């Protein structure tokens, strides 16, 4: 039995799972950036909002397109002596962590010219994916056990949630102690997270488990093909080719539809949430903000509940349950919006707060199930390519998140402008057309795309049974088994999940290397 088979087949201890939580917990550094950077630049540093939004948009866009490069590097770290000594995921984290620390600190240096902040933001958003790409790839990297993966996904969600909640609470206290005027409080708070986040990141990195170096984790041979080495230009072409060629894998195409549908409706809802509250429900965001603390605690409970449901029912069934629950809630919100003029304001506030808090349960199910299913996609890829490329898929997903966020932001702005949305208007001056469009964007987008996701789950045949067949076949081939000895059941499962003939799998294709004839 190969070392990778033994490593992936072992059960993970709870110590390993809990130390993995330190990695998403370290994301408080990035949460600080997302939450306070724009305020820091526009208020204490007095940079115009137009310039700030432009430089942040440029930084995030460039970072989004650099992300697949980090996935590419992480997958191929075993081709270096450093990677073989330290580990390919651990090695990538230990390279990215100090770079992330340096450019994170430089983000908060005051009184610098605008070009400085543009350059530093571009570099920071180019470095940070070296961390989150690895973290998101670890559930499938660390184990093949379905239960352990579900628990790792839950731990990932809880770690990130606890980090965000702790940041909110600690920041509120520190701003009360140090004040919120001038650049010093922001700088000092950011430095606290710089140190704490980096320490958590390094400790978490040193404790992760990963697949050892063998023929399936050394991807350099597949990159080279018949060539002695791959040059810089060849590497760039390979990154682009690997980003696109995964679309040839049927399971990934189905997963991609599920991911994009839920990501899009969650982004649209988030973008116009405040507008919906103000102009459709005729409330203020402050009137429904009291549920925030409870929603966080409720959300943590939801993650644990969904981990148990996913373990028992599987990812696709859990996704459907979460989606149907979400659809029911937004039908309720739609009905509330239609009757808002005939209800007391206190009633509208109470009902909406209850419904949007319960959305935490549905949303948690959707996100956890989608993340859980994503951890199985690299297993299909291994059967197709004969290689383990968890980083490739984590990088692609991170890039798509940036693209969806950017496109949705632009479309929401274009649509609202087209229907006559008035900036700075109060609740009495938006036209009925604007109110109607907000209502159907907020509720309709969620309902329609949740239904699309549900339909796509029936095309996703990657479940616990087919996954077991897949993993067993990969282990057999990895240990020297012949493709000619495949059973008929295994052939059918592999061809259904891969979307190509069995004989074209296990590296007999050009999915990794465009020049490989198969």
Automatic annotation (TrEMBL):
Key word Transmembrane helix present: yes
Transmembrane is among the record's keywords: yes
GO molecular function: symporter activity
Pfam families on file: MFS_2 (PF13347)
A GO term from the CC aspect: plasma membrane
Keywords: Membrane, Transmembrane, Transmembrane helix
One Gene Ontology term from the biological process aspect of the record: carbohydrate transport
Ranges that cross the membrane: 20-39, 45-70, 91-109, 115-138, 150-174, 186-208, 272-290, 296-314, 321-340, 346-366, 398-419, 439-458
Entry-linked SUPFAM superfamilies: MFS general substrate transporter
Protein name per UniProt: Oligogalacturonide transporter
């Amino acid at each position: 039995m190969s070392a990778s088979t033994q490593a992936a087949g072992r059960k993970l201890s709870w110590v390993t799972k809990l130390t993995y939580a330190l990695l998403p917990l370290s994301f408080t550094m990035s949460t600080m950036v997302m939450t306070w950077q724009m305020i820091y630049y526009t208020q204490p540093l007095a940079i115009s909002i137009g310039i700030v939004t432009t430089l942040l948009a440029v930084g995030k866009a460039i970072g989004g397109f650099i992300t697949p490069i980090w996935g590419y590097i992480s997958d191929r770290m075993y081709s270096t002596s450093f990677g073989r000594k330290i580990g390919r995921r651990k090695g990538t984290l230990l390279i990215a962590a100090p770079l992330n620390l340096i450019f994170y600190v430089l983000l908060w240096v005051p009184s610098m010219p605008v070009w400085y902040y543009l350059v530093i933001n571009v570099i920071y958003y180019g470095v940070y994916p070296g961390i989150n790409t690895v973290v998101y790839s670890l559930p499938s990297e660390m184990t093949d056990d379905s239960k352990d993966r579900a628990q790792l996904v839950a731990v990932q969600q809880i770690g990130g949630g606890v980090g965000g909640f702790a940041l909110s609470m600690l920041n509120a206290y520190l701003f009360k102690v140090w004040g919120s005027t001038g650049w010093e409080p922001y700088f000092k708070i950011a430095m606290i997270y710089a140190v704490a986040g980096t320490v958590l990141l390094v400790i978490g990195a040193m404790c992760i488990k990963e697949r050892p170096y063998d023929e399936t984790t050394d991807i350099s041979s597949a990159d080279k093909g018949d060539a002695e080495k791959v040059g810089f230009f060849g590497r760039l072409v390979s990154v682009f080719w690997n980003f696109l060629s995964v679309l040839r894998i049927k399971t990934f195409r189905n997963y991609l539809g599920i991911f994009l549908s839920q990501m899009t409706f969650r982004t649209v809802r988030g973008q116009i949430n405040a507008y919906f509250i103000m102009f459709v429900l005729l409330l203020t965001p402050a009137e429904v903000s009291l549920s925030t603390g409870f929603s966080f605690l409720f959300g943590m409970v939801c993650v644990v509940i969904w981990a148990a449901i996913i373990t028992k029912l599987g990812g696709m069934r859990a996704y459907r349950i979460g989606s149907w629950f979400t659809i029911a809630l937004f039908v309720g919100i739609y009905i509330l919006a239609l009757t808002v003029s005939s209800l007391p304001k206190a009633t509208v506030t109470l009902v909406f707060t209850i419904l949007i808090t319960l959305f935490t349960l549905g949303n948690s199910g959707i996100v956890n199930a989608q993340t859980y299913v994503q951890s199985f996609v690299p297993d299909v890829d291994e059967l197709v390519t004969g290689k383990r490329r968890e980083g490739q898929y984590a990088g692609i997903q991170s890039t798509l998140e940036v693209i969806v966020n950017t496109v949705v932001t632009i479309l929401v702005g274009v649509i609202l402008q087209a229907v006559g949305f008035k900036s700075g208007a109060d609740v009495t001056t938006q036209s009925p057309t604007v109110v109607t469009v907000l209502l159907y964007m907020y509720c309709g987008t969620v309902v329609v795309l949740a239904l699309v996701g549900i339909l796509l789950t029936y095309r996703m045949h990657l479940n616990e049974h087919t996954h077991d067949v897949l993993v067993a076949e990969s282990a057999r081939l990895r240990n020297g088994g012949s493709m000619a000895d495949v059973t008929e059941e295994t052939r059918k499962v592999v061809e259904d999940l891969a979307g190509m003939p069995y004989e074209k799998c296990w590296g007999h294709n050009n999915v990794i290397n465009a020049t490989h004839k198969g």
